[in-house]
Amino acid sequence: MKVLKMLSVMIGIGLLGAVLWVVQKNYVRNSWDERIAELCLTEGGLQIYEKVQISGDYFDEKGGFRGVYAIGGLAESERKGTEYYEISTYETLNEWDPTVMKVTTEMYKREDGKILGRVVGYSRSGGDALAIDQQSGYSCAEVEGFNGKITNVFEIIR
What we know:
- By secondary structure, the protein is an alpha/beta fold.
- The protein has one domain.
- Helix content is 37%, strand content 32%.
- The strands form two sheets. Strands 1, 3, 4, 5, 6 and 7 form a six-stranded mixed beta sheet that branches. It has a two-stranded parallel ribbon with strand order 2-8.
- β4 and β5 form a beta hairpin.
């Protein structure tokens, strides 16, 4: 009888520990999501320094935005023959469980290296207590009122 009682207490303690662990993990994840939403609205978003007008024909001829600019910098722009290029930089705000990143993307004009616009965004990956298939994520794209499309530096004239 003593053994059965002791076993029941150990199982109870184990279950309580598991529940507390799940609650703590969810609290940390949700705290990061709240912080990311605040950062997106206060420090994130799009800044346009120069709006570029491009013709609809040129846009269509290039096959859309991916033909208008290159991802990966000046060398990639020269290789692809595009007039514009973007560069993204990544800063880790929290390295693990969850991983939280700040991403800054800038669009440049190849001709003179002038910056046309900048987008700053934040994202979380992971931090879930129980993920059966894949960890969850959260980013500025999910925050109402966030404007983060670097392609908005382009105005297509039809």
